Amino acid sequence: MKLTLSDTKYIKDSTSIISELVTEARFKVTKEAFELVAMDPANVAMVIFKLFSSSFVEFEVKEEVDIAINLNDLKQVFRRIKPSDTLTLEDADGKLKLTLKGAQKRTFHLPMIDVEAREQKIPELTFSATIVCPAGQLADAIEDMDIVGESVVFEADGKTFEVSSASELTKAQVTMTPDSNTKIVADEKQKAKYSIEYLKKMVAGSKLADNVQVQFSKDYPIKLEYKVLNVMFLAFILAPRVDND
Amino acid sequence: MKLTLSDTKYIKDSTSIISELVTEARFKVTKEAFELVAMDPANVAMVIFKLFSSSFVEFEVKEEVDIAINLNDLKQVFRRIKPSDTLTLEDADGKLKLTLKGAQKRTFHLPMIDVEAREQKIPELTFSATIVCPAGQLADAIEDMDIVGESVVFEADGKTFEVSSASELTKAQVTMTPDSNTKIVADEKQKAKYSIEYLKKMVAGSKLADNVQVQFSKDYPIKLEYKVLNVMFLAFILAPRVDND
Amino acid sequence: MKLTLSDTKYIKDSTSIISELVTEARFKVTKEAFELVAMDPANVAMVIFKLFSSSFVEFEVKEEVDIAINLNDLKQVFRRIKPSDTLTLEDADGKLKLTLKGAQKRTFHLPMIDVEAREQKIPELTFSATIVCPAGQLADAIEDMDIVGESVVFEADGKTFEVSSASELTKAQVTMTPDSNTKIVADEKQKAKYSIEYLKKMVAGSKLADNVQVQFSKDYPIKLEYKVLNVMFLAFILAPRVDND
């Protein structure tokens, strides 16, 4: 296997975002993509990541390869990448060899690890509400909620999409309506509650894509998708909080 | 009551500065201004703040309204304001409702609190030395003193204004003389000592106004005034340190 | 003694770098330079610093003067220098008087201290490998190694210069080859190991000079030199790590 990227932003930022949810991960390299499907250790959130082969300048893989690795190790090497460097990934004697080429040639060998988790299957989900909006707006709304509480309520009907949070004394609410940048589609009124701690990590996807697609249903998981055409796909699925308050 | 600001800088920065001295505060909304007079919990420093009604784009108040609120709560909401947002303050069922309007509409409800302190009266003070100088210069001078000690000596005669601090071994001194930016008026030589901890919080007013007016007398309180014409007024009064050294 | 600088960058940044290795230091002021030779408290590293008299706008010294001072005190004053300030150093009654002149005149008096250490002699060293390369490249290479381990191996033959670090599982390696910016001269293959903790502090010299000269030999000290012609000279000597692995 030998994969080379000249634009290292997407692999670098995605790994950083994913590492907030999952520490040990098994990437799979197929003909189509460098990809990952993983659950967080608490089994509450799933991350689905693909970096398409078309975004690489070199993408040699004879058969499917698994790269199980500690994401913090990987992040440390990625932090050393300069914008002008190319990055090459190779498997070398049970290690992942990373080569950064710029003014100097720099190589790093990271140990492969045993990831015991069986391969994750992406669940089949059907959603009743779908919103597409600027990714930064969703990230801001979640940050707004962080002032108030630990959970966030998502609500949508055909006309508005609302994110809110309430504690005994304080309350925060962001309302979006359809416009040239925002599409809202919903069957009746949908409402569900999710952990703000997880959402904050997920909306960091706004660094990578201009828009986010939000999908959810009443007391049902939520799915956030960040896409860059022909380059990458990063999605998160988060279980709802169904509590008694 | 309904107050709307399109330039949110002054309310935001003032609240942040004031919150370093006072945590719980009672604002008063009169026909003229959104204002505050408060003592710090140690009864050493007073802050006087007015944001004039002329700086609001909407200023509806039928009768004087009191808004007693935790400044840290308020600061958290103000931190979420973007430069292009307008801010509306309303009283709603015993809560303070804050609305930020930009690409999205965002609302926050904060609880009013009981502030036991009786209304503060601004003391009548007569000063023998008055200095007007660039606000940043005073802030720098106080930061310079911070290298040395816990207290700062202010000294002025008609010709120079001096800020100094001395410990057993170290000494720092800043001297200003009258020029196009600096006016110094003093009856004889005035000298007094103040806590650097408080002064550091107060000179943050340099973020808001170009100039500061400094007034003090021998072993007497000091008053710092930051003004933006027709917009805001922020002043601090600090008791002197009269110790035996 | 009276020394005045209008470009304060070199004295400020050098003092900051040196203070990471040595806390109490004895500067010597001769006709030629404001200079220092000091060992770190663990006796592992030596620093040699000269700020040449030609870089000062005023350099009055009748006889050699010693200025023994706490570098943290000095750093605190230097941090208060603004880019447009001139800095004057004088000895005044057993204190070091520092004057910053800009919009205001600011003076600081710092206590001289007793530094017991006898005067340091710069050891005579003969090196078998000499590399000159962009200072930032060496600094980056050391930062790369910091991902891996506590020690760094320097290796050079006539054709390549290599910096590497290895732990049980991880490995990092930077290779430089001669080019228009990089000169490598070595008698046979030279290889030695040094502490990364010290190297990280030393390569901060890259803030001051464009290039660094690296000199070492097999299991022998390393010397790093940062020079700005007619302005300053900053060098470090570091003992090798000769361990059993």
Tell me what the CATH architecture of the largest domain in chain A is: Box
Number of strands of chain A: 18
Tally of discrete structural domains of chain A: 2
Shape of chain A: elongated
Helix content of chain A: 10-25%
Termini gap of chain A: 52 Å
Major sheet summary line of chain A: 9 strands, antiparallel
| Quaternary structure classification | homotrimer
Tally of alpha and pi helices of chain A: 4
Report strand % of chain A: 35-45%
- Computed structural class of chain A: alpha+beta
- Give the mean pLDDT of chain A: 95
List low-confidence stretches of chain A: none
What is the CATH first-level class name of the largest domain in chain A? Alpha Beta
Largest interface: A-B, 16 and 14 residues
CATH domain fold name of the largest domain in chain A: Proliferating Cell Nuclear Antigen
Order of helices and strands of chain A: EHEEEEEHEEEEHEEEEEHEEE
Strand order of the largest sheet of chain A: 6-2-3-4-18-17-16-10-14
